[in-house]
Amino acid sequence: MSQLITDPTRATRMLATLQNNVAVEEVPDTTAEWVFQHPVEAGKEFTLFLKNRAQVLIGKVETITIDRTSAFNPAEFIGKGWTIWKGPANGNGLEGEEEQDTRSLALTTLDVTRLRLETTLKEGEDSIVGEEKLARLQKMTDVIRPDAGIFLTFWKNQHLIPERFKAQTNGNTTYIFCDGTILRSPHGDRYVLCFCWRGDAWGWGCDGLGGVWFADGPSVVSPQVSSQN
Fold it and tell me: 36 is in which domain, residue-wise?
């Protein structure tokens, strides 16, 4: 057995070693904010990273196939009158191009081990209006916002949803949003889909972008990498 493992001060030594050698200035602000908002999950992920001798990939890559044989139909999945929003956000949602993340629509496979949750909350904020949250996500050009097709793949194959997404946030149920597809309700409001772990089963829903989001309503995002195209 090594001296490091038997040394009672190893935690202090490990943290000091990391502090002196990790280039924290190279960590993106969005990642730092996620760590601040999800300290427990970040700690678990970092522990796994260290247990794997600080190698980037832990275990095998889990790649799932996205069913693109037919387009997502809001009226069929949610109910009559629901559609995909078309045109600008300040329009009527009935004319123009569908508001979807085209990079997500192009994905036929997805590495679920690389998915992360993003609140977009900044230091000092405990909530954000949905439209502002969406605007911040859209400015994050290094990530892809999963569309309704990816949401539906997870819903039909719930065993594929990462186990870590069951974790609560600040003691509350975590509602995980897929902002790659903006929906139009029968009343003309803008919505996005979400799923959540209810303690014994997965559930789904959709919330209006005119409402207020807290830390327990993060969006799932995927890094934009060529291996997923």
Answer: 3-51
